[in-house]
Every structure is written in C-alpha cells, then in structure tokens.
Amino acid sequence: xxxxxxxxxxxQDRLKSLPHLPVNAQKWIADNIWWMxxxxxxxxxxxxxxxVNGVFGYMSFVSNASSYAGFYxxxxxxxxxxxxxxxxxxxxxxxxxxxxxxxxxxxxxxRLGWDLMFMLTLLGAARAFLDAVFTFxxxxxxxxxxxxxxxxxxGAYLLLEIRSYFVKSNxxxxxxx
Length: 177
Known about the structure:
Layout: H1 2-15, H2 23-63, H3 78-107, H4 111-133, H5 138-161
Helix pairs in contact: 2-3, 3-4, 4-5
C-alpha cells in the first residue's frame, strides 16, 4: 500500500503544474461521483455479461467450424482473442466489485472511496497495457498505448482535482448543499 501512496504523490506532483478546474466544478464532481460510480458498476456488470455471452458464442461457433468452411471459420487470432476476452472479463468483474464498494464511501466523502477510485485507475492502466500487448500488432499496440495514456491522464487529472474533498480524514464529511 505504501507503493500506491508513493505513486499517488508522484502523479499528483506531475499534474500540479496543470491548470485546475474551477472550485464549483471540483465540488460538483466530488458531490456527484457516487452516482457516477453506480452507473459505472451497472455498466461494468452488463459488459461482463456481454463478454461471457461473446466468449461462449464464439466457442460454440468454433466447435461447429468443421461443418462450415473449416479454414475460414476459425481465426488465426483465436488464442489472442480468447486471452484478451478472458483478461477483459477478469478486469470487468474486478471493476464492478470496486465501483460497487466505492459508492457509499464516495457519497460520504470518505478517503476510502477516493482510494478505491484511484485503485480502479491503476487497474485500468494495467488492463490497457495488457490489452495493447495482446493485440499482437505493432500499430494496435501503439494506438492502444497512446489512447490508454490519454484516457488515464484525463481520469487521473479529474480524480486528483477532487482529492482534497476526500483526504481530510476518514470521518464522514457531508457535503454542503
């Protein structure tokens, strides 16, 4: 956990020179991030079910490939696709659990909620790296890393902009309306 705190401080130092959001925007995000986490958990749960459905559908198609056009029905990328789908499934399930656990602490402006969202950002970074590696394509890797870094930078910026609303203490701090 100390390495996560060091990483948090490192990222905060890197983003310190960027312009800050207006205080009203920071407060709005801090007050409303809990219901965004609910929507994210719901979306992750649906995506998890869709990935499971896709994996089983593809496996049933491949098992019947000999009755179809054999060579053309089975992709040469089968192994990479299956690995990517299974890794995505694990990350989606973990995201669903983390977002679900973060809702109440975020609503109460507790540090735990912010920490869970930061862990989710780190999980997203790991997922993006593995996703880029399992493309087995130079350009897929390049664009995967490029867009992952861009998305993670925006997410980390927004998350660190609202950090002050959650790091004061572990006590429940209710936002003023």
